[in-house]
Amino acid sequence: MDTTMISIEVNTADGVHPLTLADLEALKANLIEVLSEKKPEQDYGFLIGELRDHSAPMISEDGVARIGGWRLTEISGRPVFERQQMPRAPLMRFFHAPIALDEDGRWRITDVIIVKVRGR
Predict the structure, then answer these.
(1) Which domain of life is it from (predicted)?
(2) Among 14, 18, 61, 84, which residue's beta carbon has the most beta carbons within 10 A?
(3) Is 1 a residue whose pLDDT tops 50?
């Protein structure tokens, strides 16, 4: 039984917009591009290989869009792909890749940011 969806709706500052599996495929390629431009490479390079080899885009039946280990969530009212790096404690690293629609109505990755959180 297929438990995936073909599109979801994503809230942005200017309204609600569809995000399809085709959009996720394009975002995967865009994410690889953005990561390849980041420095230092040791902080981001392993993510490129992971995306190329183990990251089929999907939208689960509960409406969660994923690109491999990256999960679409909302942070501060903005759509962001998030990936958590192991180990989880005492220092957790999250990779945030905000998305936005460009002037042609295509979803694009705007940046990739490392967020560090200390455990207690």
Answers:
(1) Bacteria
(2) 84
(3) no
- Using a 10 angstrom Cβ sphere, with 0-12 exposed, 13-18 middle and 19 or more buried, the burial of residue 107 is buried
Question: Rounded CA gap, 106 and 18, in Å?
Answer: 10
What pLDDT band is residue 41 in, cutting at 50, 70 and 90?
confident
The answer to whether residues 94 and 119 touch, using CB atoms and an 8 Å cutoff, is no
- Yes or no: say if 74 and 9 are a contact pair by the CB < 8 Å rule: no
Structure tokens at 26: 């394009």
Show the tokens assigned to 118. 């200390």
DSSP structure string for the chain: ---B-SEEEEEETTEEEEEEHHHHHHHHHHHHHHHHT-SSHHHHHHHHHHHHHS--EEEBTTS-EEETTEEEEEETTEEEEEEEESP-SSEEEEEEEEEEE-TTS-EEE---EEEEEE--
